[in-house]
Amino acid sequence: MATLRRAGDPALVSDPATIAEVLAGLGVILETLPVPTDGQTLALLAAPELDDAEQARLLEGLDGVFQRLQTEKGYQERDLVVLYPGHPQLETLNTRFHRIHTHDDEEVRYIVDGEGVFGFVLPDDSQVELTVVAGDYIHVPSHVEHWFRLNQRQRIKAVRYFSARGGWTPLYTDRPLQEFAHP
Ligand SMILES: [Fe+2]
């Protein structure tokens, strides 16, 4: 279940209705999609690091979700992001995405293991951070100012869904990040 923090406020907001109301102001959709619990999927999710064949198997195990999203929302492709402590790209990815940016395309993620933090600029220019965990599905519309970072666990597995390739290069807005009580 996702949780939310406002900039400058250490209080953790866990009430789903409050979180949904904050996100609705941006058109961000957050849903809970239970992660499959078959033996193969559980074993793959338990491993911090997966090779290409294991990633392909995990995606196959999650394709029930993909098929429904294809029908309902028209997504055409999906891939898997697997990050873990010691991943060689952690610093590069953090530099790239822990800055306020937008995309020309929507950003759609289904978290299946670990945790990640999405940040958003609200209509009143205040900022919030949303911690997403396994079972959280998030849809960030195009042109919404946001950022992404890992938390202290530095571990996440997330499926990315695309309706088209290439539209989600980060476009930096150069707006400064506000101060958060980082977990
Ligand atoms: Fe992004």
UniProtKB/TrEMBL annotation:
<dbReference type="GO" id="GO:0016151">
    <property type="term" value="F:nickel cation binding"/>
</dbReference>
<keyword id="KW-0223">Dioxygenase</keyword>
<feature type="binding site">
    <location>
        <position position="146"/>
    </location>
    <ligand>
        <name>Ni(2+)</name>
    </ligand>
</feature>
<dbReference type="GO" id="GO:0010308">
    <property type="term" value="F:acireductone dioxygenase (Ni2+-requiring) activity"/>
</dbReference>
<feature type="binding site">
    <location>
        <position position="103"/>
    </location>
    <ligand>
        <name>Fe(2+)</name>
    </ligand>
</feature>
<dbReference type="InterPro" id="IPR004313">
    <property type="entry name" value="ARD"/>
</dbReference>
<dbReference type="GO" id="GO:0005506">
    <property type="term" value="F:iron ion binding"/>
</dbReference>
<dbReference type="InterPro" id="IPR011051">
    <property type="entry name" value="RmlC_Cupin_sf"/>
</dbReference>
<comment type="function">
    <text>Catalyzes 2 different reactions between oxygene and the acireductone 1,2-dihydroxy-3-keto-5-methylthiopentene (DHK-MTPene) depending upon the metal bound in the active site. Fe-containing acireductone dioxygenase (Fe-ARD) produces formate and 2-keto-4-methylthiobutyrate (KMTB), the alpha-ketoacid precursor of methionine in the methionine recycle pathway. Ni-containing acireductone dioxygenase (Ni-ARD) produces methylthiopropionate, carbon monoxide and formate, and does not lie on the methionine recycle pathway.</text>
</comment>
<keyword id="KW-0028">Amino-acid biosynthesis</keyword>
<keyword id="KW-0533">Nickel</keyword>
<dbReference type="InterPro" id="IPR014710">
    <property type="entry name" value="RmlC-like_jellyroll"/>
</dbReference>
<feature type="site" description="Important to generate the dianion">
    <location>
        <position position="109"/>
    </location>
</feature>
<feature type="binding site">
    <location>
        <position position="107"/>
    </location>
    <ligand>
        <name>Ni(2+)</name>
    </ligand>
</feature>
<dbReference type="InterPro" id="IPR023956">
    <property type="entry name" value="ARD_bac"/>
</dbReference>
<keyword id="KW-0479">Metal-binding</keyword>
<keyword id="KW-0486">Methionine biosynthesis</keyword>
<feature type="binding site">
    <location>
        <position position="103"/>
    </location>
    <ligand>
        <name>Ni(2+)</name>
    </ligand>
</feature>
<feature type="binding site">
    <location>
        <position position="146"/>
    </location>
    <ligand>
        <name>Fe(2+)</name>
    </ligand>
</feature>
<comment type="similarity">
    <text>Belongs to the acireductone dioxygenase (ARD) family.</text>
</comment>
<comment type="subunit">
    <text>Monomer.</text>
</comment>
<protein>
    <recommendedName>
        <fullName>Acireductone dioxygenase</fullName>
        <ecNumber>1.13.11.54</ecNumber>
        <ecNumber>1.13.11.53</ecNumber>
    </recommendedName>
</protein>
<feature type="binding site">
    <location>
        <position position="107"/>
    </location>
    <ligand>
        <name>Fe(2+)</name>
    </ligand>
</feature>
<keyword id="KW-0408">Iron</keyword>
<dbReference type="GO" id="GO:0019284">
    <property type="term" value="P:L-methionine salvage from S-adenosylmethionine"/>
</dbReference>
<dbReference type="GO" id="GO:0019509">
    <property type="term" value="P:L-methionine salvage from methylthioadenosine"/>
</dbReference>
<dbReference type="GO" id="GO:0010309">
    <property type="term" value="F:acireductone dioxygenase [iron(II)-requiring] activity"/>
</dbReference>
<keyword id="KW-0560">Oxidoreductase</keyword>
<dbReference type="Pfam" id="PF03079">
    <property type="entry name" value="ARD"/>
</dbReference>
<feature type="binding site">
    <location>
        <position position="101"/>
    </location>
    <ligand>
        <name>Fe(2+)</name>
    </ligand>
</feature>
<comment type="pathway">
    <text>Amino-acid biosynthesis; L-methionine biosynthesis via salvage pathway; L-methionine from S-methyl-5-thio-alpha-D-ribose 1-phosphate: step 5/6.</text>
</comment>
<feature type="binding site">
    <location>
        <position position="101"/>
    </location>
    <ligand>
        <name>Ni(2+)</name>
    </ligand>
</feature>
